[in-house]
User: Which sequence fits this backbone?
DNA sequence: CGCGCGCTTGATCAGCATCAATTCGCGTGG
DNA sequence: CCACGCGAATTGATGCTGATCAAGCGCGCG
C-alpha cells in the first residue's frame, strides 16, 4: 500500500506534496483497533487526534437508557476528532466499527505545523467545515425523510464519499456495519432496518449482504433519498480551481 | 448599545481588545432584515459572511415537497455562514426569523485578517467547531429523544447559549419563533408542537407565549431533555484558562 | 371591519417501535 | 467431526407516537 495513501481525502489532495509529507511525518505508527472498540470516551481530555487509515470509525452519543445515536461515520482519510485539537475534550464517543486502522497526531505537533504552515491549518479548518456540512445532511435526513429515504440517502452519501478517496468500485463497496449499527445511524430499530433493506432489495435499488453494498440503480436511489451531493463539495476539493491565500 | 457588543460570542471573548477591534472594523454597517426574509439561497456563490447582531437567523434545507428542515439556529454573536468563506457556496438557505440585524464581512477582508492574525483565523475555526458540536446535539436530539424531550432540549440549549452572550435574564428570554418554526427545528408539525408546549406548561416546566420563553423548572427541563451543556464548551470559552499558541 | 396568520383542540390514520420467535452462519471446545 | 453457543438476520403480531385532516378562535393589520 502506498504510504501516502492515508493522507488523501477531505481536500488534502490540494496540498503540495511537501505539505502532505510534512503532515504524514507527524503521524504515529498505524494502530489496529478491534471491532466495537471504544477509542475515546466523551468528556475525557485528549492530547492527540485520530485519522482513519482503514475501515470505519464512528462518533456516537448515548441517551439515558444507553441507546446509541451515531452522529457521524468516518471513512479512510477522515480525521475523527480533529476538534479535540482546539476544544481539548470531545462531546462524543469514538467507536470503531469492524476492525480498523488509525494513526494519531499529537496536538503539539499539530500546533507546530499549523503555526508554521498556514495552508495546513487551513486544510484542518476545511476538514471541520466538511464535517459540519455532513452533519447538516444527517439532520436533514433524520428530519425530512422517512425510513427508506433515510437509508437510501445514507448509502448515496457513503458511496460518494468512498468514491472521492478511491474506495468504491463503480457501484459497490465494503461496509462492515451490522443492521443494528445502520439503525443507530438512521434512527431505526434493527428490525425495521431489516425490513427497509429487504424493500430496497426487492425494488432493485441495492443489496447489502455480507458487509458489502451493491448499488443497482443509483439514480432511483438518489431520487428516493433526495440526495444532492453538493454538500460534499467534491469538485471544489479535488479540482484546485482557485486556491485560497495563494496564486 | 455598546458598539463592541456584536463581537462577543463563540469564544471571541478570548481575543485581545485589539483583535476584537480589528475584526469589528472589517464589518459592514448593520443591516436590518425583515421577518422570514431569505438572506442567502443554497448553492449561490457567496463572497461575504454574516454575523447576527440582533434577533435570530436560521439555516434551513428544503425537501422535495418544499417542507423546511431547520438545521441550525443562530443568535446574536454567531456567524451564520462563515463556512462560505472557505467553501464559496452554501449547502443551506439562510433565513431570518423575525426581524433581525446583521453585519457582513467581506471574504477578502477575512482572508487578509486571517493571514496576518493567526489568532483571528483560529477563532474562526473555533466558531466552526462549535457549530459542528451544536449540529451533533441536534442529531442526537432528533434521533434519541421524543417530542417532549426534543423540545425541552432545544429550550435548554437556547437558554444556555443566550446566557453566554448575556441575552437571558436568569430564566427567561425572547424567542421570536412561531410554533411552526419551532416544529421545523424539532421535526414536529405545528399541531403537535402546540400540544407539546401545552404539556410542558401544564407540567410547570416552562411557558412560551408572546414570543417569550420563561423557564419555570430548569432542572426538570434539563432532565426531560437529557441536556448536558458540555457540548457548548462554555467554561472553556469564557475563561481563558490556557491559550493556544500563546503564553 | 374583515381578512389572514397563528394558535388551539378533536378525530382518525400511518409509520415505526416493541415484543416474540425462528433461522442462519460461524467460531469454539469436547 | 459434531454439538454447542452466540451474534446477526429474518419474519409475524400488536401498540404507541406523532402525522394528517378538520374546524373554530383570537388578534393584529390593511
Assistant:
Amino acid at each position: 500500500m502506498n504510504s501516502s495513501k492515508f493522507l488523501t481525502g477531505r481536500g488534502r489532495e490540494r496540498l503540495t506534496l511537501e505539505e502532505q509529507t510534512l503532515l504524514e511525518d507527524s503521524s504515529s505508527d498505524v494502530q489496529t483497533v478491534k471491532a466495537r472498540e471504544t477509542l475515546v470516551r466523551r468528556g475525557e481530555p485528549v492530547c492527540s487526534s485520530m485519522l482513519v487509515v482503514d475501515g470505519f470509525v464512528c462518533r456516537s452519543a448515548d441517551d439515558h437508557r444507553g441507546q446509541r445515536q451515531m452522529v457521524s461515520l468516518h471513512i479512510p482519510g477522515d480525521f475523527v476528532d480533529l476538534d479535540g485539537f482546539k476544544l481539548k475534550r470531545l462531546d462524543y464517543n469514538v467507536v470503531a466499527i469492524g476492525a480498523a486502522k488509525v494513526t494519531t497526531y499529537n496536538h503539539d505537533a499539530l500546533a507546530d505545523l499549523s503555526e508554521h504552515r498556514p495552508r495546513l491549518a487551513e486544510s484542518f479548518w476545511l476538514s471541520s467545515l466538511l464535517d459540519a456540512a455532513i452533519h447538516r445532511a444527517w439532520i436533514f435526513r433524520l428530519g425530512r425523510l422517512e425510513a427508506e429515504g433515510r437509508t437510501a440517502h445514507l448509502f448515496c452519501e457513503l458511496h460518494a464519499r468512498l468514491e472521492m478517496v478511491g474506495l468504491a468500485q463503480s457501484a459497490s463497496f465494503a461496509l462492515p456495519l451490522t443492521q443494528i449499527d445502520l439503525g443507530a445511524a438512521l434512527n431505526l430499530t434493527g428490525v425495521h432496518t431489516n425490513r427497509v433493506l429487504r424493500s430496497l432489495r426487492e425494488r432493485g435499488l441495492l443489496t447489502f449482504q455480507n458487509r458489502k453494498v451493491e448499488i443497482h440503480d443509483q439514480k432511483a436511489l438518489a431520487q428516493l433519498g433526495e440526495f444532492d451531493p453538493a454538500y460534499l463539495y467534491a469538485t471544489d476539493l479535488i479540482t484546485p480551481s482557485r486556491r485560497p491565500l495563494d496564486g
Summary: Chain B touches chain A through 47 residues (CB under 8 Å). Residues 146-147, 188-189, 191-192, 195 of chain B lie near DNA strand D (CB under 10 Å from a C1'). The first helix of chain B runs from residue 17 to 25.
